[in-house]
Write a structure and sequence with these properties.
Helix content of chain A: 25-40%
Subunit structure (chains A, B): Homodimer.
Structural class of chain A: alpha/beta
Keywords (chains A, B): Amino-acid biosynthesis, Aminotransferase, Cytoplasm, Pyridoxal phosphate, Pyridoxine biosynthesis, Serine biosynthesis, Transferase
CATH architecture of the largest domain in chain A: 3-Layer(aba) Sandwich
Subcellular location (chains A, B): Cytoplasm
Oligomer: homodimer
Number of helices of chain A: 10
EC number (chains A, B): 2.6.1.52
Number of domains of chain A: 2
Binding site for L-glutamate (chains A, B): 29
Largest sheet of chain A: 7 strands, mixed
Strand content of chain A: 15-25%
Bound molecules: pyridoxal-5'-phosphate, magnesium ion
CATH topology of the largest domain in chain A: Aspartate Aminotransferase, domain 2
Order of helices and strands of chain A: HHEHEHEEEEEEEHHHHEEHEH
Number of strands of chain A: 12
Chain lengths: 351, 351
């Protein structure tokens, strides 16, 4: 979280300017909150260049609820099949929820190489009449990130889980049918999920799905069909403004993210094989730098010594092992530099 | 929101004690957050006297998601029918979601008297093999509150929407199969919903319902099946501690709420018919005081003059009209006294 955002939230905690009360106390129907909500939406729209053909929703339930909502809205009752590119852990969870709603098939699955790569256009074929093509733009656990949208026939809506790389770089929204991101990586606090979707697409959904999952309810009511997560939206709006006004937009953010991640990948590549990147070079993530060390003992030593240097949360997921450094937008260059310095030191002492 | 809670949140915004970072920055798997979550659960358990036979969950999606989740877990696929007591607007919304999951029937509906009353035991009959009996303990819009749990056969789980009177008084949890409350009335900020349920009851649910709706996922993972709404849980924990330590528990809270609400009902009753309470006397709510004035003109005048006196959010819902004063736990006596004073003044000037 950018420190300037935390300071503003702190300053306004007892009294939201103009409200005479805390944001935690006013109703979601209060016109001050409605303005905050619209401002958050509009800042996202301007950052991403979202056209009026698309809705921007704020929902609860995390990315996980979207696994079900997408299939309930776009697959249930269509008689079509949904096609998934499985490039890591989150895609696998998503398809298992989709299977409850209809036919969902993995048309690409990188499990044989433990999700270290992404497909090229020749590695899969999307049916012209698929309900949608689903992929995860950045697999958080494996650290593999698509550099461009996967190939997809014009007749098929492209759906993306952008949870862990939303707002890390410009995004061509008009290539998508729907994309979504839980906020807790790059966009704000846990408790709100942004869903961007082509309005015409969700009009066709079956209204007999659970009401909270039915996107049209949220779209028709400007994310106030029921009480939205007011505080999380308020903070997300401030983070979006920070990106626009302090950072200077998503192209600028991407530049910073490239510098930050390159500095770590360089250390990996120049370590003479001591650090081994998990993701293939061409699909390395700007957000999650995953690598292994020569042994479990060295991995444990790395994590414990890093912790003593106030470098926390570096343990890789058990499915990948090793180290995962998550360097989201708000992680300052100094934080990445400190980690790079530690990696170089650790190599010189143990390599 | 109690001011002491807001001040603590403000003090801790940049740095959560022991964390070296803001609560908005740490992972939901960080042991400091896990402690906060368990502490919030345990404080609720001690306030309400919840036994180990019950789970206490923190979910997203608001009370509205529970309308669907309850029916998906307890009705879908059972071949049974769910029975509903309709005593106001929220129960009606709940049954419309349940109908998507199976047979759901209103065995009592007070619509003919515009939801001004509650049923006695002789006004409805619950089937011995109903999937559950559902009611709303306090209908927020109409201001009707059950004084005791409705009669229900021992074979039928009792389910309650306690959103707008949770923690306003002691609650005999062991009479319930399941009860839930969105936090934004009495328990905390918008963005978290507390669900308390008999563990054995939800074991039987169909695992093919959407994963986020399947209670067992949340129960088996201590509300961390996916990322929970960390900030809302953190504030809810502080509100629960305030109730226990500063107020002195739920019996004490009820005493205060009775004093606050009685003072307003007294003005209504002694107004010579100028103020007419919407709810019948025996089912008046401690939380939402609803009443009408002699004309629409006087109602509009009341709301506008009250606003000028910094008494806000008094407009009744269009289905009831008139005035609704919501006097939740955190509303201090002085706030209620100011409203009472204004009501007396307004009567003397317009009565
Ligand atoms: C890419 C991706 N998808 C989905 C999720 C699940 O999000 P949530 O915990 O909000 O359901 C995560 C969380 O880490 C993620 O990184
Ligand atoms: C009794 C009751 N039930 C349900 C709801 C809906 O809650 P939410 O907006 O969190 O879905 C409310 C909200 O005001 C309520 O008062
Ligand atoms: Mg809109
Ligand atoms: Mg509400
Ligand atoms: Mg537990
Ligand atoms: Mg997460």
């Amino acid at each position: 979280m950018p420190e300037s955002v935390l300071r503003e939230v702190q300053d306004e905690m007892l009294c939201l300017p103009g409200a005479g009360a805390s944001l935690l106390e006013i109703s979601h129907r209060d016109k001050l909150f409605v303005e905050i909500l619209h401002d958050a939406e509009n800042t996202l729209r301007s950052l991403l260049g979202v056209s009026d053909d698309y809705g921007v929703l704020f929902m609860q339930g995390g990315a996980t609820l979207q696994f079900s909502a997408i299939a309930a809205n776009l697959l249930r009752g269509t008689g079509k099949r949904a096609e998934y590119l499985l490039t890591g852990s989150w895609g696998k969870k998503a398809i298992s929820e989709a299977k409850k709603e209809g036919e969902a098939v993995a048309i690409y699955d990188a499990k044989e190489t433990n999700y270290d790569r992404l497909p090229g256009a020749s590695d899969y074929t999307v049916s012209d009449d698929a309900a949608y093509l689903y992929y995860c733009s950045n697999e958080t656990i494996q650290g593999v990130q698509f550099q461009n949208e996967p190939e997809c026939p014009a007749s098929v809506p492209l759906v993306s889980d952008a949870s862990s790389d939303f707002l890390c770089r410009p995004l061509p929204v008009d290539k998508y049918g729907l994309l979504y991101a839980c906020a807790q990586k790059n966009a704000g606090p846990a408790g709100v999920t942004v869903v961007v979707m082509r309005k015409d697409l969700i009009e066709k959904a079956d209204p007999s799905i659970p009401g909270y999952l039915y996107y049209k309810n949220h779209l028709d009511n400007d994310s106030e069909w029921n009480t939205p997560p007011t505080f999380a939206i308020y903070v997300l709006g401030k983070v979006a403004r920070w990106l626009r006004d302090d950072i200077g937009g998503l192209a600028e953010m991407e530049k910073i993210n490239r510098e930050k991640s390159s500095s770590l990948y360089k250390i990996i590549d120049e370590s003479g094989g001591f650090y081994r990147g998990h993701a293939n070079v061409e699909c390395r993530s700007l957000m999650n730098v995953t690598f292994n060390l020569p042994s479990d003992e060295l991995t444990a030593k790395f994590i414990s010594e890093a912790g003593a240097n106030r470098l926390a949360a570096l343990k890789g997921h058990r499915s990948v092992g090793g180290i995962r450094a998550s360097i989201y937008n708000a992680m300052p260059r100094e934080g990445v530099d400190a980690l790079g310095q530690f990696m170089a030191d650790f190599l010189s002492r143990n390599g």
